[in-house]
Amino acid sequence: MALLAAGLALFLAIHLIPSLPRLRASLVGQLGEKPYRGVFSVVAFLSLAAIVWGFSRAPLDLVYMSPDWGRPAALFLVPLALVLFAAARMPTRIRSLVRHPMLLGVLLWAVAHLLANGEARSVVLFGGFALIAAILAISAAARGKGPPMQPAPRMTMDIVSIIAGLVAAGLLAGFHDVLFGTPLM
């Protein structure tokens, strides 16, 4: 469990650097922009590897019983989260309505998994990601960051992001057991 928690802490720390302009500028000044991005990517990847490895090795101690409606709610929330995630990098109406669609998507994904899973390792993993998403959203809002406010684009990219999110949800649902070792139901 310690490796899982350490991976989450490192993931949060590395993702907070862009919200600290002086620290980021200092690192870019010392390393250069491309090396900074390279180090950022390597540390983010290593933190994800620690999260995956730590989760796979953590015990399955039950913290709470998920409610009967938890799994059906998750089956609704995860596709919604993936649509938000897809819309985050496209010029969509969704992006112009939701200030931080990627972070909201991560938060919904994490909450969905907390509703469906009550083991300690799931609480640490998904609670950790929910906390990270909330902290980063609050930090971005405090800095006035968010997608640029533009005139609402045509619906085409919204449709693309909805289809992409639903296709991703279908693939993840179909291969959840193979990819993550946990069947959906």
Q: What structural class do the secondary elements suggest?
A: mainly alpha
Assembly context of the chains: single chain
Contiguous low-pLDDT stretches (5 residues minimum) are none
Using the CA coordinates, give the radius of gyration: 18 Å
Instruction: Tell me the number of strands.
Output: 0
What would the principal axes of the Cα set say about the shape?
globular
- Kindly report the average pLDDT value: 90
- Helix/strand order, N-terminal first: HHHHHHHH
The count of domains is 2
Gap from first CA to last CA: 25 Å
Percentage of residues in helical conformation: over 70%
Count of separate DSSP helical elements: 8
- Tell me the strand percentage band: under 5%
Largest sheet: none
Describe the protein in words.
The chain is mostly helical. The chain folds into two domains: 1-58; 60-185, no CATH class. The protein has helices spanning 2-16, 21-31, 33-57, 70-87, 93-97, 101-116, 120-142, 156-180. Helix 1 packs parallel to helix 7, helix 2 crosses helix 3 and helix 4 (70-87) packs across helix 8 (156-180).
